[in-house]
Amino acid sequence: MIRSVIFLLFLFSLSSHAKTIVNYYKCVTERGTVYSQFPCGSNGTQHILTNTDPSAGVPSEQHYKTLNRLEKKQLVRNLKNKIRAKKHEAAILTRERDRATRDQQQRVNRIMDDKERNNTLKDIKQQLKDINKTYHQQARTLSKKIAQLEKRLKRYE
After folding, report:
1. Can you tell me the distance from the alpha carbon of 1 to that of 6, in angstroms, rounded to the nearest whole number?
2. Is 24:49 a contact under the CB 8 Å cutoff?
3. pLDDT tens digits for 36-88?
């Protein structure tokens, strides 16, 4: 009798480790999404959660393939975000250059005598030359970075 009870307990303990199935309910309300182990209304949907034995073997190739695919997707997404950020940075740089150029050109429109006007024009030409020089340097580096990012993106796509 004792042997049969011990055998049954041993049998039940083995079957409980193999697979566990749990039902839960997902309800969407005005306040958000609620998960419950009990039905929660007409808008609730039932889902099944299945747990298996953690010591069970998983095919390693599939696991690595899945991880590699997810990592590749993440790399592509991050590269696209970086490219978009660099293009946005280039647009901001262009706007700043245009604003600085406009400010320098407005200096010419002020009323002043000829000598002061000539000195101001020389200063404005120098300022515009400096503005364009720094703009082209920064734009060149940004375009190189964008080209590098796009090259890396092509490798992953």
Report:
1. 9
2. yes
3. 777 777 778 888 877 776 676 655 566 667 778 888 889 999 999 999 999 99
CA distances from 85 to 36, 39, 78, 90, 124 (A): 41, 46, 10, 9, 32
Place of tokens 């990012």: 149
Q: Which residues contact 34 (CB under 8 A, 6 or more apart)?
A: 26, 27, 28, 40
Q: Which two tokens stand for residue 135?
A: 């703009």
> Which candidate, 90, 152, 100, places its Cα nearest to that of 128?
100
- CA 85/CA 88 separation, integer angstroms: 5
Residue 45: count of CB within 10 angstroms of its CB: 10
Q: How far apart are the C-alpha atoms of 91 and 88, rounded to whole Å?
A: 5
Give the start-to-end residue ranges of the domains of the chain.
Answer: 20-51, 60-156
